[in-house]
Batch of 2 targets.
Target 1
Amino acid sequence: METPDTLPDEEFLRLDRQICFSLHAAARAFNGVYREALKELGLTYPQYLVMLVLWEHGELPVKGIGERLRLDSGTLSPLLKRLEAAGYVERRRSAEDERSVTARVTDAGAELRTAALGVPRRIAAATGLDVADIADLRERLGALAARLDGIDPGELRPACG
Amino acid sequence: METPDTLPDEEFLRLDRQICFSLHAAARAFNGVYREALKELGLTYPQYLVMLVLWEHGELPVKGIGERLRLDSGTLSPLLKRLEAAGYVERRRSAEDERSVTARVTDAGAELRTAALGVPRRIAAATGLDVADIADLRERLGALAARLDGIDPGELRPACG
DNA sequence: CACGATTCAGTTGTGCACAACTCAATCGCG
DNA sequence: CGCGATTGAGTTGTGCACAACTGAATCGTG
């Protein structure tokens, strides 16, 4: 048993409820605040995330968006279709590789960026958190996510230690 | 202008992409790890959260579960129906208030708890994070969620400062 | 060149989150 | 008591997340 037995299983279960709930609830609360702020733009929170990376890069293949946002085509395909229907994004098959589809920001999408500029500032003001705090939290969450994504599924099986 | 203009809007947008993504990705990565660990129990992550609060309280009205997990009936009703179909939970109308429905852990649900005891320990071992770290992160996320939930929607409207 | 393996986007099916709604039970005030 | 307002669970519809799959394009190796 390499796991230090400083806590009984019962205690682990209680702590687990707390951390699971906190992360889950914080993510949904964040989502809710953005949902409200993004209403005027007609974007959902995940659509906003996609637009953020597209605004940074101008155009990206679906795969590239997926790598940056940790999302697969099953999520991105319909989402991009909706962004295209809204007129913010254009999709076209790549000429070099017919398997690949490139998403590009349209003029309307670029205009949307201007309107979106005020969103994070308003949210930062409403939360009252300062930039350093946010940046620190971001780093810890990023490290946590990286570690979680790096876990071998076998480690979670009952038999393994 | 109470917001200090230490950063241009452009910078805010870039930082926003980072924090939004981090929280979003961390929550999904967490979800994924639990999805794997909970496979053997036949539970999804949100179902596990519901079982955790039910294991603590034995039985709760739907409203009580919703308050503890920040979920509404639209999410809980079908979820509890699935837990009932799996045999882990029983639902019955309250005698005192016919509007209310109480969810109660069945014998099979109680057995499931025993099987679930190992889950958080395995995950803690796999992540390699120590309890103090987790507890600290939990507190910060809890505080963030509380602040976000306390925001007046009006604060997020374009016109307001 | 040929052909099996891989890669990429998209589809299908399941479940969660949430808004908007229905409907019955309960509450509260006149 | 009577009746409008509120409360509680449930339903419906939309969108996201993800597993499992399809099908076409490309790659690699013989």
Target 2
Amino acid sequence: MHMGMPESDYPDIRELHLFSDMEHENFNALMRGTYLQNFPPQVDLITEGEQSDFLHVILSGSVELSASWNGRETTMATVRPVSTFILAATIKDAPYLMSAKTLEKSRIALIPSLDVRRVFDTDNNFARAIVAELAQCYRSVIKSQKDLKLRTSLERLANYLLRQQHLAKGPQEFELKMEKRRLASFLGMTPENLSRAFKGLQPYGVEVNGNLIRISDQDDLVKFAKPFSLIDDYSI
Amino acid sequence: MHMGMPESDYPDIRELHLFSDMEHENFNALMRGTYLQNFPPQVDLITEGEQSDFLHVILSGSVELSASWNGRETTMATVRPVSTFILAATIKDAPYLMSAKTLEKSRIALIPSLDVRRVFDTDNNFARAIVAELAQCYRSVIKSQKDLKLRTSLERLANYLLRQQHLAKGPQEFELKMEKRRLASFLGMTPENLSRAFKGLQPYGVEVNGNLIRISDQDDLVKFAKPFSLIDDYSI
DNA sequence: TACATTTCTTGATCTGGATCAAACTCACCC
DNA sequence: GGGTGAGTTTGATCCAGATCAAGAAATGTA
């Protein structure tokens, strides 16, 4: 681990909506204290319940956010570049509510929470950017909550596939970006059931081949899934 | 409905963490455009999908936030005085993700979203207060999500009762503040099942009499419920 | 290449919780 | 007081999804 960011990583972070409007001075102050590290897969970055020491920015790879209770565990979200995670805990100086671990080899910037809070207190543009980011995060969780409470697991899977297809710019064929067992946990079901759910979507034109998904009858799937902007559109 | 807030309601709102640190000037500007209204029970205040016109502050009574999809409906939360709701939609100028309706006769302040966004852009203390509020809201939803994904309905009910007892300052006996069918929906179950779940908690010392709950064996219930700060403590 | 380990799938069974139906309770109102 | 209608409870049944068990496939490793 080394202190201070190499020049080459500045732009990626600076471009993030969260940092793009802040004072140069303040951004540089943040970066001076920032650690950059390459992590191998399966490394625990954060354990739920611990105090927030760093705001994390994922520059490459992927990170899983999970939570556990009473011996059970569930996947809450997967984070992909370029974005931050556990912003709320950092701002509130509160314990993490989720654990985080790398899924693949990942490059991650660690910005000391103390610095984030200090700059937050002085840089108004940064404070405003944080509001936008938090509002976005809040609305995302609400959508996910609605997905969980209002839909069956089959419906959740169908809509998940449509969302992923949309993210992949809407091709007939695309790859799952998550291991199936993780996807199952994310969707609130068991791996066995996910496997059966894929079968259950065959009548609606979904073909599965390993990580490859083919949606042969888009309209049919849409008719079944009934995607709804107030649940499935993560851009609003 | 009348324009401009009566003096007597200023303090309630001013005391809210969200408004307490902002400039007098700006607070007054907000209040000048604010409508105050008394609503009877069962009035729809907000319909999900509509554009955010007002930030709502509930001064008395209670409001239910719900969401629906494909003919199904679920209770997301109940809001009680003094707090705001649908802050995220107001800030983002995005459509509401939830509907809101009064459960009881309620006094509610309606602050035009345009004004909120304008003051947000100029008053830094207000912007910071919004960050704190949003971070709190975000973490609350995450906790609720963990509750849903990691616990059975019986466990959710047990922990809900312990939380309510705690809010009531920990007496052996306390009242449910929600209709049972709403509570069922909030906990992600049917009314029938809630009824059976109450029965299922009898062995752990829970006695139900209408809206009155008596926890005769605290330790036993706690041992079953296994409350966990990172799910059940809404103050962190 | 062969072996080991993990993930994924499939089948059989079980169970938590939903649904359906009917009684019961209670608040409200003429 | 005696409806009337909503909310709640109880019982019977059903179903989605969990669990258990065992292969099959993929992945990593000697």
